[in-house]
TrEMBL record:
The gene is Tmem80. This is TMM80 protein. It holds the Pfam family Transmemb_17. Signal peptide: none annotated. InterPro entries: Uncharacterised_TM-17. One of its GO terms (cellular component) is membrane. The lineage of its organism: Eukaryota, Metazoa, Chordata, Craniata, Vertebrata. It comes from Sinosuthora webbiana.
Length: 133
């Protein structure tokens, strides 16, 4: 029997998990910074924080299903993880383009996260194709 799980995907899932912790803390610190330094409208602070925390909540099952699907060579969890990745990408794009204030650090952090999501999605599709065939 041959092993179909993807080592590059597994490594990327692990590295992305570590990066996401840094991303969350840095983005939270920047939102706090922006709320203190700039005239941040009170009615717009809550949606920006809600998007960040929703993204963090979404990241846990997304990563878990990615790890589980790849290691067990099951296409269903990997497909669900891919679907949750789409949701994470939408929230990441919100933080990149539509949050109240976007700093250059926001652009850098979100561009790196979107790149990781893109690479991870490509590897997930490749792994699912290998599991199905």
């Amino acid at each position: 029997s041959s092993q179909l799980s993807s080592l590059p995907l597994q490594i990327l899932l692990y590295v992305n998990g570590i990066y996401y912790i840094f991303y969350f803390l840095a983005t939270l610190a920047m939102i706090i910074y922006k709320s203190q330094v700039f005239s941040y409208p009170d009615d717009l602070l809550a949606p920006d924080l809600a998007v960040l925390f929703l993204m963090a909540i979404l990241e846990v099952p997304r990563s878990y299903l990615g790890f589980k699907g790849n290691l067990t060579e099951a296409e269903a969890p990997l497909g669900l993880s891919l679907g949750l990745t789409v949701g994470s990408v939408v929230l990441c794009v919100y933080l990149l383009l539509w949050q109240t204030y976007v700093l250059w650090a926001d652009v850098l952090l979100n561009a790196l996260l979107l790149s990781a999501y893109g690479l991870e999605s490509g590897l997930k599709v490749t792994a699912i194709a290998a599991f199905v065939s």
